[in-house]
Amino acid sequence: MDRKERKRLNTLIKYEEEARSEGFRCIAGLDEAGRGPLAGPVVAAACIIPEGVFFPGINDSKKLTPLQRERLFAQITGHETVVYAIEWVSSLEIDRVNIFQATVMAMLQAVAKLSSIPDCLLVDGMQLPHPIIPVKKIIEGDVKSQSIAAASILAKVTRDRLMEELDTHWPQYGFKKHKGYGTAFHLEALATHGPCPIHRRSFEPIKSYKVPTVKLKGQ
Question: How confident is the model at residue 219 (pLDDT cuts 50, 70, 90)?
């Protein structure tokens, strides 16, 4: 690792160090993927990276290529001292409770699933209402905190893989390529075929469609 990257990585543990200076010892970063798409689940990840552990090249998942994300995903999940958990909430639940509440649900479920109980949560851009654990909201946390950046990668890669799997059931929508976002191709496919079961019925323009839901073959 060169000096420039070491310096950059040291800036990414500022919030973790601040939390440790306040007496916290088990600090988890949280982030989500999939709040904006028209289809598919919202995915949240929680990640605890011990003091002194660094992942060169780590950054906000949106600033990385798919290959870089996959490489870092393997490094993070394969590291023997890193504790992480990933959870997701379906499009049906998103429609039932709204996307914000679904994101909160996914994050709280990820925290609850961790094998180590954190005593502080660093959350990207939202004040997570955890009933017990102190929460620190960090705007643009995925570019300011290594643990949040790691969570963003875990959530993004997991969601992309889920959407690629769902593409095998409904290939006409192109989920493998756009991951459910409202691209021109996706909107055209919606206009042609109508929504399928993983489309978010509470999101426009799907909310305004008056056509039956496309089902799996054989249903």
Answer: very low
